[in-house]
Prior knowledge:
Blueprint: H1 5-19, E1 25-29, H2 33-41, E2 46-49, H3 51-57, H4 68-80, E3 86-89, H5 97-109, E4 114-118, H6 137-150, E5 157-162, H7 165-168, H8 170-182, E6 187-190, H9 196-205, E7 211-213, H10 225-231, E8 235-238, H11 241-260, H12 273-279, H13 282-291
Parallel strand pairs: 1-2, 1-8, 2-3, 3-4, 4-5, 5-6, 7-8
Amino acid sequence: MIFSVSDIKKKRQKFRSDLTGGKILRFVGSFSPLVSRLIEKQGFEGIYVSGAVISSDLALPDLELFTLSELVERGSALAQHSSLPGLVDADTGFGGILNVARTTQKLEQAGFCGLHLEDQKSPKRCGHLDNKKLIDIKEMQKKIKTALKSKTDTAFLISARTDARGVEGLDKAIERAKAYVEAGAEAIFPEALETEEEFKKFREAINVPLIANITEFGKSDLLSSKILEQIGYNIILYPVTSWRLALKAVEKGLKQLAIDKHQKNLLNEMLTRKELYTLLNYEEYSKWDQDL
């Protein structure tokens, strides 16, 4: 499955249209091109590339330890093997203003439909951990303006994430979000809101599309997409769900294999050869051989 530049532009335009269509868009975190296809197969609306997942896949903590090149290489494969729009976690932009410009250009070229930048100081921490530190509001505004100037496709979404809720409180987080909208942010991602009421207050205060991060084992209540849609959120992220499911399944299976000394009791937990080949579009590739 290969998408042309024209295909990607159309994908972005559709994403921007859907973003304000009144229905919440469910973006599921992917860690493999085949997982991206499974996400699409189950009827979700988007692929999310989480910095936490990229870090974990490299056996690193989520402390901004991977590079922009690693994000582009791994992330583009996750976004390009599905017809769904891809949203990518650009962390702090990998540095200062010039780094933000290059990050924006590289991620746009990689085929994503949008990115989000956050207002933490480097090295950042996972958004649901304590002891985060924030950059100055004006510095974040400069990063947002730089990202907007750096993109070449107007449909490429520039979102601003604020981690201020856990550092300065809800009111300050809303204050920052308003400043980021003034700087041109096309969507706002309020990280680590805790209750339904906090999500509502943010929606009441901000008039651009909002992103809700509903990650497991974090600070936020695990609100349903139905509730968030009723509140008026535009995107819901399930950033690490598929990755956690996969790791737990592999751990469970390997324990059973170590005990049984064979895989016979694990077959019902696996994709069959036929199911895997279908996911791989095996027959479609085989036709190339026949036509030569």
